[in-house]
Amino acid sequence: MGWGRTNCSLGISLDNFEELPGVTQEVLSRGAIPSGRFRSYGDSALNSGGVNINSNKFKKIDIQTDKGIAICGSGVTIGELEFAAHLHGFLPAVVPGTGYVTLGGAFASDIHGKSQQSKGNFSDHVTQITLIDSHGIAHEYTSDSAEFKATAGGMGLTGFISELHIILEAVEIPVIYQKEIRVKSLKEMLSSLVKVENEFPFTVAWIDLSGKYHGRGVVTAGRYASKDEVRKKYNLDYRFQKHDKPITIPFLGRVNVMKKFMIRVFNSLWYHKPVKCGLISFRKFMHPLDSISNWNLLYGKSGFIQYQFVIPSLDSDFLEEVLLILREFEISSAVTVLKKFGRGGSGYLSFPIPGWTLAMDFPAGTKNLSKAIEILDRKLIANGGRVYLTKDSLLNIDAMKNMYNELEEWKQMKRKMDPACFWQSDQSRRLELC
Amino acid sequence: MLNALKQFQNILLIGGKSEIGLETLRNVQMVANAKVFLLGRQIEVQDISIEGAQIFRLNYDISDSADRIEVISQLMDEMDFDLVVLAVGYLGNQPNLSTLRQNQEILNLNFNHSAEVLAFVAHRLKVQKHGKVLILSSVASVRPRKGNYVYGAAKAGLDFLARGLQLDLEGSGVEIYIARPGFVHSRMTNGLIPAPLAISAEKAGELCAKGITKSKKVFYVPGVLRFVMFIVSVLPTRILKRLN
Which residues of A touch B29 (CB under 8 A)? Predict the structure, then answer.
């Protein structure tokens, strides 16, 4: 099941390639998709009727402090890498909003984080990958190869990533100095995000789309704290725990708690909460939602849809239009995150392009949602924008062709690397990527 | 492949000229430019449109033993189907019992050939582990009536097979829905005296499209016929004869 719980498929899950011969021909005819911790929101890690090869057994972590790199198995999670690396005074340069994503998944989605405008995407910090093809043969590809470019953001459709060489950043103390700024409008939010990035490499904004608001929210900016700053609150040899202890909210999963009223209450509370300026641990700053293990169950059985797009413009016009469309259709987004992208992605299907990106969460049963998203897709295409495939569960074939202008080049590489189209997923069938 | 809003992308209508079938497709939730394949006799010359969908017409005769499965098999090799509607039906003009052989066409079209296609489609959807099938059964399948019991027998057979397949497909991700329409105004019933609770093909299509979104796998069209047919099924024969 996808993280949004709207897509669910029946398939066979395997832990390694050696188990493939035991699978029937009928199942094999449906191909295979690599999978990690199933943090994609839609169907990109699902393969109905087919095989799902999980990366759980690929757990090697080798931190080479002299070179400042980590050689890791694809099943290692971002959180596990952070822990291992920080013991040696390093951290990954790009991490997403959750530490539960595997490194293989991070590469296949070419994830980005709060540091995107200064440090780019995950694949920008990977020098080499080992990719296993449909015959079980391992190939090594360096970052200058077309195969590497096809796999970064390639949604697992070019092969099974078994190992990655990741460049780490030297970080003395894993503590962030955080600054929060409450803003009353979208314009104020955008100018604030641009202003803070001179001093803070990590920036993100939460925006209230729960009612007739015009873009009020909170901008969060962060930088690594200096020793002097850390000394006041933590020990200089502060280290975080290997495993976080998240809260699990009981009785969730059957009923959608995130009704319009609750969404409004939650967003109001969040807007009015005291702004924090001070020290916070790296983990808590980078992965705020990881403190609740089952937050996706708040949306009940029908689940939720996350729609994340990027628009290649630093004006507010398109974003104002989006807010207007949502207000007109009376659609509320439970959690909305706005960020500035500074760089494009290196993969053919990498999502980021310089501009604004907005990620919205909608309960799946929201009235008029289909119509609104159809309009948003059309407007996005007209403005040169695109939707993030890792969050996607609604895109159609035509929209995909119009949004990703290197799709044909990617398909050529896909045909070269996987001529029998062994690597396939529910998403690849929905978007005719094979 | 279904998206997160459960909208159909690839749809197959076997019996592509069926008015109920087409109206059902006009009412189901489908993605923009969904692919709808219509299989039917001389269908390529028919002017059929479904708003928002790409229509592909293939000439298909379910009586043709060479093509019956082959055409469908080739289509299903190319892509996953989210919805297959089996709407082949032939009411015919039931002659006397002594000429039962002339009822062959009624039995073949409504049961023999349809059953073969249904079993094949169910199996292929089982391989893809997702998909819905809608078969058009009939209230005539509930209890024999003088004058259309051969048609009723054929529909009852198909109905029974579909219910058996439902048991087999439990947990497979494939769902088989059985619609039991009453009298529907269409080419098939042209010239006949409408039965009580008769509805239009448009209404039947709307109700069928709604029916396949519910958990009840066998549904009547219109829904009130469930109660009517329950009574019909338990009525003593001598009372039913008088009503006939």
Answer: 370
**DSSP letter at A169?**
E
Tell me if A268 sits within 8 A of A260, measured CB to CB: no
Q: What are phi and psi of B179, to 5 degrees?
A: -100, 135
Radius of gyration of chain A (CA): 21
Residue B231 lies in a domain: yes
Domain count, chain B: 1
Is residue A347 within 8 Å of residue A149, measured between CB atoms?
yes
Q: Is the peptide bond before B194 cis (omega within 30 degrees of 0)?
A: no
Q: How far is CA A93 from CA A45, A282, B67, B92, B159, in A?
A: 25, 12, 60, 74, 61
CB A386 within 8 A of CB A309: yes
Is residue B176 situated within a structural domain? yes
Per-residue pLDDT band at B96 (split at 50, 70, 90): low
Taking a C-beta distance cutoff of 8 angstroms, is the pair A43, A426 a contact? yes
Strand partners, A33: A52
Residues of chain A neighbouring B77 (CB-CB closer than 8 A): none
Burial-class residue B193 by CB neighbours within 10 Å (0-12, 13-18, 19+).
Answer: exposed
pLDDT surpasses 80 at B99 = no
User: Min CA distance, A277 vs chain B (Å)?
Assistant: 39
Q: What is the ipTM of this complex?
A: 0.89
B1: in domain: no
pLDDT tens digits, A375-392: 999 999 999 999 999 999
The Cα–Cα gap between B123 and B146 comes to 35
Smallest CA–CA distance from A26 into chain B, residue: B127
A352 touches chain B (CB under 8 A): no
Q: Is residue B167 part of a domain?
A: yes
**Sign of the alpha-carbon dihedral angle for A297, A299, A301, A307:** negative
- Tell if the CB–CB gap between B5 and A11 is shorter than 8 Å: no
**Which of B4, B29, B80 minimises the CB distance to A393?**
B4
| A283/chain B closest Cα distance in angstroms | 31
Residue B101 above 70 pLDDT? Answer: no
CATH assignment at residue B114: 3.40.50.720
d(CA A114, CA A97): 8
User: What averages of pLDDT result for each successive group of 10 residues across chain A (434 residues)?
Assistant: 86 86 90 94 93 95 95 96 94 94 97 95 97 94 97 97 97 91 94 93 94 88 89 71 74 80 88 89 90 80 91 93 92 93 94 96 90 94 96 93 96 96 96 92
**pTM greater than 0.90 (yes/no):** yes
Q: Residue B221 sits in which domain range?
A: 8-243
Q: Do the strands B174-181 and B131-136 form a parallel or antiparallel pair, or are they unpaired? A: parallel
Of A372, A256, A292, A267, give the one whose Cα is nearest residue A5.
A256
